[in-house]
Amino acid sequence: MRARTRYRAIPVVLLASVLGLLVVAPIARADTPGYHEYVALGDSWTADVIIAGTAGTPTARYVPIDCFQSTFDYPKQVAKALDVAQFYDASCGSATTQNFADPQPGLPLGGTNPPQFSHLTPDTDLVTVGIGGNDVDLAGAVLDCLNLTGTRLPLPSPLAASCKAKWTAGGVDRMSENIRAAKPKVIDALDAIHERSPKADVFVVNYLAGIRGPGCYPLLQASNADQVWVAQKLRELNTMLAAAADAGDAQLVDTYTPSIGHDACQLPTVRYVEGFLPVSLNQPAIAVPIHPNSAGADSQATSVIAAINDSRR
Questions:
Q1: Which CATH class name applies to 37-135+172-207+229-311?
Q2: Which of 104, 122, 161, 262 gives a 20 to 30 Å CA spacing to 89?
Q3: Tens of pLDDT along 115-141?
Q4: pTM (2 decimals)?
C-alpha cells in the first residue's frame, strides 16, 4: 500500500560527558523499490538532538547548528537505508507545526530555521513527520516535574515540584486540552504536505516510550504521581497522532511499542531516552534531557524502515 501522507525541545543544562560503549544491532535496510526524494520534517525527537559526543557535534549541513540536529538521527539513517537520490532533513529542536509553514527564529544561538515546508517539491515522494510535542507544550510540562526529593512535600521547586499539580489545577487537565487542540493543527499540516507534494507517501512518526512511571526515582528525579501523569499524557499524545494520521491520509509509524522497556528508568545501555541528567552512554555524549539517545534513534529508524517496507508490499 502507498500511504498518503501526513513534534519542541527541552532547554538543556549541560553536564560533563562520560565514557562508554554500546553495541547496537545494525539498522535494517529497505527491501522494496526505492524513493527518489525524501524530506524529513519534525522537532527535537526527529532531530534526536545532542550537544556533543563521540559521534560529533550537531551538524549544520541541513539546518542551523542551534537546531542541535544529530549526525545519527533517524531521518539520516532512513535516507541511507533507502539510498535515496535526494534527501533533506529539515527537523529542528523546539519546532511546532507553525514552523512547517513559517520560519523558526530565536534558536538558542540566534539562528533561524527556514520553513520546513520550503524543502518540499512536487517531486518529493517520501515525507516523514515527527511533530506535536511542542504544540502541546509537553516539554515544558516535563521540566515542571523535576523533583530532587521524589516526594510531594510542600517544599520549594525543584526540591519537590509537581507537574501534575500545576497542570491539573482547578480540576482541569490542561495538557489533555492542549492535546485535543493540537489535533487539527497536525491534520492541517498533513493536508498541506499533500498539496505541496501530491506524489508523496507520508508517514507520521509517534513518540518513543520514554517515561514509564511509577518507581523510577532516583534514576528519574520526579515523584511517582508525576511519572504516571507524564506517561499517561505521552500515550494520549500518541493516540492523537494516530487519529490525525488517519484523518490526514498518512500512515502511522509506531515507535512507542517497540521501545517499551527502554524508558529513561532503565540502565544507561538499555534506555532509548535519557533522563534529566544530560549524559548518555550510547555513543557517549552530552545529551539533551528527556530526549532519545543514539539507541533510541536506531530504534526509530528501524520502525520507520519496517513501516515503509510493509506499506509498499
A1: alpha beta
A2: 262
A3: 999 999 999 999 999 999 999 999 889
A4: 0.86
